[in-house]
Amino acid sequence: MKNSSEDWPPAKQDTGKEWSEAKLTILKLLWPMEWVEGSKVFREVQQTYYDRRIRELRESGWQIKTHPSGQMYRLVSHEKRPGKERQYPSAQQKRNVRKRDGNLCQICGLPDMNMQFDHKVPLDRNGSTEEDDLQLLCRTCNIEKRGACKRCGLETCDRCPYAYPELSASRIVAFLDEQTAKELKEESEARGVSEAFVISKILSRHYGDKGE
Q1: What is the pTM of this model?
Q2: Pairwise CA distance, residues 187 & 88, whole Å
Q3: What is the DSSP letter of 166?
Q4: Rounded to the nearest 5°, which phi and psi values hold at 122?
Q5: Backbone angles phi, psi at 186, to 5 degrees
Q6: What is the reported pLDDT for 171?
Q7: 168 exposed, middle or buried (CB, 10 Å; 0-12, 13-18, 19+)?
Q8: Domain range summary for the chain, segments of one domain joined by +
Q9: 3-class secondary-structure state, position 46
Q10: How many other CB atoms are there within 10 angstroms of residue 115's CB atom?
Q11: pLDDT of the residue at 4
Q12: Collapsed DSSP state (helix, strand, coil) of residue 198
């Protein structure tokens, strides 16, 4: 493992395009291939959505891993792989998805002035921009889903309630005491899944056992 940036900058440039200052700063921070706190990345780039710049680096071919906590990042190789250019929904796809989803958030079921088009399976997990992989989410639920995806350690998005909310019969909001919330967070980070996923499994086991 390298502990310095003596061989910086990388020999292979980003698809021949000019580097943005934010992405260059992030890659230099990650170059020693050690875990870097997201708070440190934010301080250096001064961008609230620095995670988007990290996503763009991944899409251009840099191998960046997210810690199960969702709060740290690490470059796992100095080799830049062929990138995967991000595809955006066409105007026709957007119209079709809006009509299909009734212009409502597919997680909370509410309308929103800032409805967003979400990839059910994230592109960095080999999702696509086909209509079947798109859904409408309100801004709040999309931010929540993005955070859950960052912490997720599951191998597949199959049956994930954020990716496929239509598979869930209902959604609840739970208020927890400090100790319970702490233990839930620790378990979710250890398992690499969202806190909602842990609660769902506990409830399913509980009521499933009662029904046997």
Answers
A1: 0.60
A2: 35
A3: G
A4: -55, 150
A5: -65, -40
A6: 80
A7: middle
A8: 1-85, 91-211
A9: coil
A10: 19
A11: 46
A12: helix
Q: What H or E segment, with its residue span, contains residue 168?
A: none
Whose CA is closest to 152, among 194, 180, 184? 194
CA 3/CA 144 separation, integer angstroms: 34
| pLDDT score recorded for residue 17 | 55
What span, in angstroms and rounded, lies between the C-alpha atoms of 25 and 64? 14
The span from the CA of 174 to the CA of 37, in Å, is 29
**Given 3-state DSSP classes, what are the helix, strand and coil percentages for the chain, each rounded to the nearest 5?**
45, 10, 50
Instruction: Write down the H helix ranges in 31-177.
Output: 38-45, 50-59, 91-100, 139-151
Question: Which structure tokens are listed for 57?
Answer: 């680096």
CA distance 187 to 167: 24
- pLDDT tens-digit profile of 82-119? 776 677 899 999 999 999 999 999 999 999 888 999 99
Q: Which long-range contacts (CB under 8 A, 24 or more apart) does 58-63 make?
A: 58/124, 59/83, 59/84, 59/85, 59/86, 59/123, 59/124, 60/14, 60/15, 61/15, 62/27
Query: How would you label 116-134 residue by residue, b for 16+ Cβ within 10 Å and e otherwise?
Result: ebbbbbbbbeebeeeeebb
Coil vs helix vs strand at 117? strand
